[in-house]
Amino acid sequence: MENMFQGEEYLPLRDVVFKTLRKGILTGELKPGERLMEIHLANKLGVSRTPIREAIRKLELEGLVTMIPRRGAEVAQITRKSMQDVLEVRKVLDSLSVELACRRISEEEKEQLGLACEEFEQAVESGDFSAIARADVAFHDIIVEATGNMRLAQMVNNLAEQMYRYRFEYIKDVKMHGKLVQEHRQIYQGILEGDMEKAKRAIDLHIDNQEKSILEQIGMEKEKQA
Amino acid sequence: MENMFQGEEYLPLRDVVFKTLRKGILTGELKPGERLMEIHLANKLGVSRTPIREAIRKLELEGLVTMIPRRGAEVAQITRKSMQDVLEVRKVLDSLSVELACRRISEEEKEQLGLACEEFEQAVESGDFSAIARADVAFHDIIVEATGNMRLAQMVNNLAEQMYRYRFEYIKDVKMHGKLVQEHRQIYQGILEGDMEKAKRAIDLHIDNQEKSILEQIGMEKEKQA
DNA sequence: ATATTGCTTATTGTATACAAAATACATAGA
DNA sequence: TCTATGTATTTTGTATACAATAAGCAATAT
In CA terms, which of A41, A56, A197, B199 is 20 to 30 Å from B191? Predict the structure, then answer.
């Protein structure tokens, strides 16, 4: 007999720790350059060093922490350069996502996307920044899922993750809200109609705007590579 | 005073194990579906379970092993679908790599790339499959390095890695050798001349050919998604 | 014959113990 | 005062010990 009570999902401690630390890094609670000391974290989270270490190994591969041999882990620095690198890749992968979504999205997903689009608009109208962020993630999640390419989805999510620390500032910029809604609509319509070019143009614009905002926040000597 | 003898680089056991296991998986020594049991591996490699576990955590995030809760790790299955997913992403990232390399490659790297191109031709003439594989990796490594985008480099390498198990069969296909050399030359010339379109066309063709070969090897019902 | 139960074993998940290296700091000497 | 050195402390790297779950198997009941 199957387990009828599947409410209580089992998660190894390492995964709990992994998620906890990741969230801490992304929200800025753990600051760039801050050392992640095992015993300290173990005490704080009430577990032993083992799950802490295993979680750090994963964060390492995700690029969220930097390892220094025999010195341990620290929260990865975000530089203008590293952010540009991320954005450079994100642009083509987001473009690919939209293209594939146009070709492969199911009717059901189209509906979901429409709902997500509306929810985003409502969130924007409400002015609740946290709700806007959530709705934005949900919208983009549906698109990458609709590509049917789980590896792509994972990679895009990982890249998007790198930008979360800045995104909040971006969302706070109220005068951009209209633009945001407009872009989402364009993307949605493009995908709905299977108009790949329209959807791609919209997502490109979307990322470009985020790039401007993020780079503005970071440091901003103007260094252009032709 | 700095350490003048930096020959002996320190590598934590977890990284040694990581590389060992990865190589084992990529060469096919560890077969898809095979379980990775910690004590067994620990004995075999002469270390304790701890570094084994940490290595597995990294392999997990790289997609080379699959975790089953409370049952441990096994070598990830390669399906036609998973390989198509990888190739789908690789195409755009390789294209991006070549584009960026065209714009940013240094004179020194141009020379290196020329040498690597020649070495590849020599390897092909020699007929030494292993040497061909190495020279191929070296050639492509220079290109991704020349992008100046380390995150992109890492992602491309990870994707390329997924195809190593099949690449050997591909290289064994002697009648393709001429084509391979030709493609490499085109890529090299395109980058040298800063002719982005030429270089991109060449790399696209390059990956397409690999795709054909790999998909041929795997299973081969023809399923096309328009 | 099939299903169920209980036991044994194998294996993972977690905690702890020990060793080695890096760091910080104080102290002695120039 | 500044430098160098030795020592104590912290922290990582690795190994082992213990606990809990899952898998295999035999014996029993239906």
Answer: A197
